[in-house]
Amino acid sequence: MQKLSRHRRMVVLTEGQLGLFGAKTAASVIRYRHQDVVAVLDSERRGEPMAKFLPWGHDIPIVGSVEEALPLAPDALLVGIAPMGGQLPQRMRAHLIAAIEAGLEVVSGLHSALAGDGQIGQSARQRGVRIWDVRETGDFWQVSTARAATLPVKRVLTVGTDCVVGKMVAALELTEAASTAGWDASFVPTGQTGIMIAGWGMAVDRVISDFVGGAAEWLVSQVADRQVCFIEGQGSLGHPGYSGVALGLLHGSCPDALVMCHRPGRDRHHGIEAPVALLAEQIELTEAMAALVHPCRVVGLCINTAEMEPAQARRAIDQAADQTGLPAVDVLRDGCGPLIKALGQALGMA
Amino acid sequence: MQKLSRHRRMVVLTEGQLGLFGAKTAASVIRYRHQDVVAVLDSERRGEPMAKFLPWGHDIPIVGSVEEALPLAPDALLVGIAPMGGQLPQRMRAHLIAAIEAGLEVVSGLHSALAGDGQIGQSARQRGVRIWDVRETGDFWQVSTARAATLPVKRVLTVGTDCVVGKMVAALELTEAASTAGWDASFVPTGQTGIMIAGWGMAVDRVISDFVGGAAEWLVSQVADRQVCFIEGQGSLGHPGYSGVALGLLHGSCPDALVMCHRPGRDRHHGIEAPVALLAEQIELTEAMAALVHPCRVVGLCINTAEMEPAQARRAIDQAADQTGLPAVDVLRDGCGPLIKALGQALGMA
Hints:
Two copies of one chain form a homodimer.
Chain A: E1 10-13, H1 24-33, E2 37-41, E3 62-63, H2 66-69, E4 76-79, H3 93-101, E5 105-108, H4 118-127, E6 131-133, E7 154-160, H5 167-180, E8 185-188, H6 192-198, H7 212-221, E9 228-231, H8 243-253, E10 257-262, H9 279-291, E11 297-303, H10 310-324, E12 328-329, H11 331-334, H12 337-346
Parallel strand pairs in A: 1-2, 1-4, 2-3, 4-5, 5-6, 7-9, 7-10, 8-9, 10-11, 11-12
Helix pairs in contact in A: 1-6, 3-4, 7-8
């Protein structure tokens, strides 16, 4: 696994998709590594203030071309989107070629490896520029046998009622809060953006489907000597596109506790027409499915209220707590206090 | 998808693993295509009667080397095993090289593509011999959006309480029984052995994990104009190695009815130490998971009694029926009559 962390002057490409939920990868990379981002590249939004799209945008300038970013001395271009199916949008191609010609390294979490793209791969080889396809897993051939259950590290997995509800953010915030509370805690990245932020990991949605549980098992084994780890969840057990990945991760990582992430008010699954099941039903089913391999409980809720006013958000969070009897927070509004307390009790670390 | 069906004089390689559950692929290819098999290659069992290992062995000779099989004029060597993880056992290598040198085509359902194996791939290219890696899916990049639910074909999926319980055999036998009953029925192969038998399909456990549901969706779309299809199940929702594949297939294929396959008396999952949940519990959970995308019921049971005496088998089948209130048969002992009747009612085809 190549490490991204040496890049300190990145340009984040969003071309036409800048926004909280449009460019999920950009939003999170800027949230957690804003000090390493010199510009956002989006010709539709050139010159507009970042705060309009991401409240945590830190006045990062929005440029309209690679050329315009060059005076900022960038060292890499990072593809800031994570579209369904993971293909490169055609309109991003010219920016990638321009970045390569300017000598910038390219970082991408798309399914379609850019190094294997005829035009882009060839340009990079000619110019002697590296492409880091973060999602590439190489030859990974490990079948899960539920070995993770035998590891000393306590395992917490963030699960979700849908895709794009904040499972990665929850795991990152919980890791930081646990560390602050004095636990020896590690974040376990399972997807492209988590890998870009943490500098290691494996995209479990990219491995051969027979080995998705084995990938989860391998990831947890990398932090076996820590006190506790927070595993970034993927997909949702109810989303027909990604439920296989979600279950492989649940069974392969053998969590000791779950944190359920939920966006209230969403009644259709992300990107498709299928309905989202009720929160309480999803909690019950997730626990039942976990118990087939390694029993554990949902001990708290992360309620994503990013698109709500404060009073509406408070009502939504309280309602989720009332419906389930579980502690509920929006980790970005409220912090992780109640969740860390609940986890401490559930894991015997209080 | 390349078709196997033109091979009419196959040698099936089992080297050291001949038996009902040791060489799963060989057992099923011989069951359903015995007229196209001229020999089994297993140097440990050379000259022994096939009936000792497979009751449906049809007096196929067991040879100890490729050379010994050549007078039978074979046209292909088929790798007859499906090991956990799908790697080539070292001891099979010499037989494969000998087959290639003798000009036989090679057919393999292993995860590790033989065409990409240095020594074997090179030998095949030098000799001008084709290798058919049945599990290779090429570039498949389709995310499931539960489109299968909108297709006119009625979809029946065989699911299982574990791996290696007879989900493929159940789907094949049900397809034949349905055809005999006058339905326009098609078998949908989702794994390497099913593909070898039917001559088309896709190994859903070989695609990138994000696309396992999409692969199921694509497979069903190939038989959209038939009256009913019987989809070969994979893995089990409770097996930590393969639960992701099982759920992706369940959600991607959007079945209208399920047939649960079960081997009584097995209390640990195939190949590992994890316990197998109770039959009734697995039925309930499978239906609940299906309902997250497309509701359906388990309408009957296939009880695998291959290792039981007749009286013991009868008791086990009756017990499963009593425990669940569902029609139960061993399709190889009893035929599919009660299941076809139950499916006819459930699907409105009675």
